[in-house]
């Protein structure tokens, strides 16, 4: 008889990152190991988001509530898991004993101080629903810094390159805007800057300056629609963009310094919206396309939600109105996520609706599909 020997994950030997008391911005990289083979649901970053806020809550409940509800610009970002996640059919698989990397950034002094306390009592495992991830190590992904240091750093005086490694999009007039227009990109960074730096600049004046003086020298981008956050879909872009300053630019030393400071801020704060759910991850370099991983399962889910929403809208067109559209999208989201194997309990929690309501919507959605098929 053969005995199965369980695979043992080595006990981590972790070092705690340290930084000075004046630090206002940190970027942390966590090395994780999956403790078992497990299926990840497409929107697993909502679980990472919730887990992180729960960790903050254990140290500072008021700060956690503020990060969740209290501000338009969030003082943190999180990434997707980087590593060998296997797509099989409609599922994403984490592999036992495989290493994964996860990034968390803090963008305010208050949060950075909380992170310092947290790292000294860091738990051994990230409880990600059915996929526990053992924390092997945590280190600084980028130098700990302050907004003043970013602003006073030596001018680059050359083109700057940014790579958008996860789908990136902006809000414009209640729609998604998936293009790296210079004024839109740098306004995204300036909003964070003005919220957290204590060095506020006039948003309109800087936007006009960027519009008139910053050019796109080259780009290599592609668009993608993904399911992101707790609800809804996002059309975003991934790829690389090289920005430059026009040779005929208007002299403005203050805005030029700000322009380069925001470029340095970009890999910390991410670009666009839903950066607290893994979108808009940004690197201050040119990364070749083949190294940028597309969240294909999120794309599959987004396409299915879109397909189902349209079917339900057509069936409900006699009732019309905005409410009918919202119900159609909610039915589609619940059914599509259930088809990918998520539990009704988990879906209800993410959508912040009662379990019985989610169960009822799922039943109505399945009935509508059967009626349409008939």
TrEMBL record:
Residues 162-282 form the CRISPR-associated protein Cas6 C-terminal domain. It comes from the Bacteria. GO terms for molecular function: endonuclease activity; hydrolase activity, acting on ester bonds. Residues 28-119 form the CRISPR-associated protein Cas6-like N-terminal domain. One of its GO terms (biological process) is defense response to virus. Transmembrane segments: none annotated. Pfam families: CRISPR_Cas6 (PF10040), CRISPR_Cas6_N (PF19308). Gene3D superfamilies: 3.30.70.1890, 3.30.70.1900. Keywords: Antiviral defense, Endonuclease, Hydrolase, Nuclease. InterPro entries: CRISPR-assoc_Cas6-like_N, CRISPR-assoc_Cas6_C, CRISPR-assoc_prot_Cas6, CRISPR-assoc_prot_Cas6_N_sf. This is Uncharacterized protein.
